[in-house]
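Bench log. Compound arrived from synthesis this morning; before running ITC I wanted a structural hypothesis for how magnesium ion sits in the protein. Inputs:
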Amino acid sequence: MKTIATLALSPTAAHLAQASTILQNGGLVAFPTETVYGLGADASNDQAVAKIYQAKGRPQFNPLIVHVANVQTARRFVQWNTLADQLAKAFWPGPLTLVLPRKKDAVLSDLLSAGLPTIAIRVPKHPVAKALLTQFGGAVAAPSANPSGQISPTSPAHVRSGLDGRIDAIVDGAVCTVGLESTIVQLDDGAVLLRPGGVAVEDIEKEIGRPVSIRPNVEKITAPGQLNSHYAPQAKVRLDAQHWRPDEARLGFGAVDCDLNLSLSADLVEAAANLFAHLHRLDAEGKATIAVSPIPQTGLGLAINDRLKRAAAPR
Ligand code: TXA
Ligand code: MG
C-alpha cells in the first residue's frame, strides 16, 4: 500500500472543517471519542468505507459502527422503536451502540453493514467527535483506529504508531476518558448484548426494567469480539495472576505491588479507562509476558475481562 502523509489536526474550528472536507472527499480521519479513537470515513461512500478495511487490514466480514451527531440524524438511517428511545434518552450521547433494522431508504454503504439488514449506530459524547459529526452532518463509519487485531488506541500517539502513512489525518482530542469500546445491544422485542463495553449491562437493565439477554456465539455476524484473538499486544498475556512470576510485566488491580496499576482503589471505571493505555505501555517494554491481576466480573469488569480474554487468546 502506498504511504501517504498523515496530517496532525488540532480540534480548532479551522482544522475540524478541514477534517470534515477530507471525509466528504472520501478520505480517512481518525478522531477521538470518549471510548477509543475511531477511524472515520463517510458511511455513504463505498470506496471510503473500503479504505477503512484496507488501512486496518481488517477481515471484510466485520460490519462497522455508524456515528452520528444526534438522535434525529440516527433516525434517518434506522427504524426506531420504544426501547431505542428509552436507551437513547438514558445513554446518548455516550458509549452505547444500538443495533436496529436499517431503513429501506437509508443512504449507507452496503459494505459498511456487510450486507446485514441491521445497522449499528451511536452518538458519541466526546466534544471533538460531536463537533466533527455536526460539521460533517451525515453518518461516519468508524471502527477503532488500530490495525486489526491489535490493542485499541486511547491517544493520538497510539493511532499514529499503528496507522501512520495509511490514513489522511488524526484529530487530536487528548486521552479517551472511558477507554473501552461501546456496549453493543441489538434491539427488537427485547435487548440482546452483542458486546460488553462502556455502559454496564446492569445499568441498561435498570433503565428498561428487564433483563438483557446474551446472544450465544452462533450467529452469522462475526464481531471482532467474536474472533478469538483480538486486542492483542506483542507480548503473551497471562490472566488472573495471583502471584507474579520472574520476568513478567505486571499489570495490577487493587492494592498489589506491580509495574502499572489499572486502579489502586479497585475502581472498575478507572481500570477501564487505563486498560488499553497500560497494555500499550507494558508491551513497549518488550517483556515476553504481561501478567494481569484478577478483575471482578461485575459492572465494567465484564467488558475489561472480555478484552483481556481476547488479548490472551491463542494466536
Ligand atoms: O466505542 C466504539 O464502539 C468504537 C468507537 C470508535 O466508536 N468503535 C468500535 O468499532 O469499537 P469496531 O468496528 O471496532 O466494532 C464494531 C462492532 C463489531 O463487533 C461489529 O461486529 C459490530 O460492531 N456490529 C456492527 N454492525 C453490526 C450489526 N449490524 N449487527 C451486529 N453487530 C454489528
Ligand atoms: Mg476494534
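What the model suggests: The first helix runs from residue 13 to 24. The pocket of threonylcarbamoyladenylate (ligand 1) is lined by residues 33, 35-36, 38, 62-65, 95, 97, 99, 113, 116, 118-120, 142-144, 181-182, 184, 194-195, 221, 223-225 (CB under 6 Å).
ITC booked for Thursday regardless.
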